[in-house]
Structure formats: structure tokens, C-alpha cells
Amino acid sequence: MSREWVIEIYQDVLDKKVKRFPNHFFSGEEGKEYMRYMTCYLLEKRLSIPVHEIPIRVRASILWSHRLKSPAMVYGWNYYDVIENAYPERFKPWQFQQVPHKYWYGEEGKNRAVEAVKHLLENELDISMEDIPLHINHHFFRKYRLYGAFDIFNQSPFQVIQAVYPGVFKPWQFANVPLNCWKDQVSIQETMDYFLFQQLCFSSYEEALVKVRKQHFFDFQLTGLFQRVFDSRMPKVREWIKNKNEERTAINS
């Protein structure tokens, strides 16, 4: 059956000139081809939706209200399957406003979340590896419609990136630091050493004790560390540095 004839039948159904599609119209692979013709016609011609805007503008309700639900049920398809049939490998499910039911559930959902974030970072966005902690935050997941994926990782940017790039980053490099990070002495030690010796380039704890300033914590987005570990008090910062210096001196003596 030609594409033109399939679309003519579909138009008659939409315009209520006939009550339903012909018997066995959607049987087998030929029926899937008819679904492809109808879906492309509906979205691109009848609704005038540019193909690149389909993920933003198309929800299940649009397809179902235009008589595509019953044909989809023949194949056990959800609305994304209908789109995938019409535009093979053109879109990812997570690009849509409405992802398929339970798409982010369980271990498979977690793997999909990792794939989605990795695909965005490596194929669609111009973000260098070292800048990832600066860009991956709550706004990122909302902007790219990945909030369902975000929920899998307890809405922790660090946990997401740790799953995508295991062991590459530290929790304190992110603006949204995990809640328990500043209760862990190892994390505090790693953060302070990186802060003092890598970011501020002090040569020793002795130099840090003399030169570190409150503003430094703000300059390097470590206000959480300053507030939660040191109660926003520089005397406590200097006391910590002094103790670490004494510990190091004792070990080396």
C-alpha cells in the first residue's frame, strides 16, 4: 500500500469520515510501516511540528488524541516507541518532556541515567573535563530534562558524576557537596590539603598558618567547609592547620 493511500485513510479517520481503520491494517511489519507514515504525517504536516522540536512538544496525549493509541497497543508500544518507529535512532527517551513509565527505575534505570549524562557531556555540550564540577548542579538536570535520572542518585551531582566517571572527582569539588562530606575527617583532610597546597600554592602548613584568609574560602567556593567544619571562624581554621603541622612534624621526627 502506498504512503499516499495510508495517509488518506488516516485523514479520513481523523476527520471522522470513517469510524475506524480497516481490519488487520496494522498487521506485521507492513503495519509498522503504516504507523511510520501516519506518525510523520501527523507531527510534521498536520501539526506542523519541526522534527528537531518533537522531544520538546510531543507528549503521549498528542499521539493518543489523534487516534494512534489503538494501533500502538497492537504492538505493545508506549508513546516513545511510536516516535522511535517513525524516527529510528533520531532521539533518546530522556530528551522528551515525558519519559516512558519506569524508565529510570532500578539498575537498568541507573545505567540509562549514566548513559544519558555521559552522552550529553561528551557529544552535545562543550564542557571540559576539569569544568564538569562547575556545571553539574540541580539546574543542569532541570534544563536537560534529567530530573528523573537525578532522583536515582538522591539528587547529588557528585554521585551522578562518580557513576559516570568513577574516581575522577572529589565530592568537595562540586557546588552541591554531599551532606555528610564535612563530617568525614578524610574528606576534610583531602579538601584542606588541596585547598592550601594546590589552589593557594602554599609550600607548607607553616606558610598556610600565616597567610590563609577568610576570603580564600569564598574565592574557591569552599564556604560550606568554612561554615560547617570551622563555624565560620578563622581561629578554628588556624588551630586545625597548627594541629596538622604538629602531627606531620611528629611523624617526621
What does this structure look like?
There is one protein chain. The model has no long low-confidence stretch (mean pLDDT 90). Helices cover 61% and strands 0% of the residues. It is rod-shaped and about 90 Å long. By secondary structure, the chain is mostly helical. It contains 16 helices and no strands. The longest helix has 19 residues, at 28-46. The chain starts with a helix and ends with a helix. The protein has helices spanning 3-14, 28-46, 54-57, 60-65, 69-75, 79-86, 106-124, 132-135, 138-143, 147-152, 157-164, 185-199, 205-211, 214-219, 223-230, 234-252.
Record keyword descriptors for this entry.
mainly alpha; 253 residues
Work out the strand percent. under 5%
Poorly predicted residue ranges: none
Indicate the radius of gyration in whole angstroms: 28 Å
What is the number of E strands? 0
Question: What class would the helix/strand composition place it in?
Answer: mainly alpha
The biggest beta sheet reads: none
Distance between the termini: 89 Å
Number of helices: 16
What letter string, H or E per element, gives the SSE order? Answer: HHHHHHHHHHHHHHHH
Summarize the amount of helix as a percent range.
55-70%
Arithmetic mean pLDDT: 90
How would you describe the shape? rod-shaped
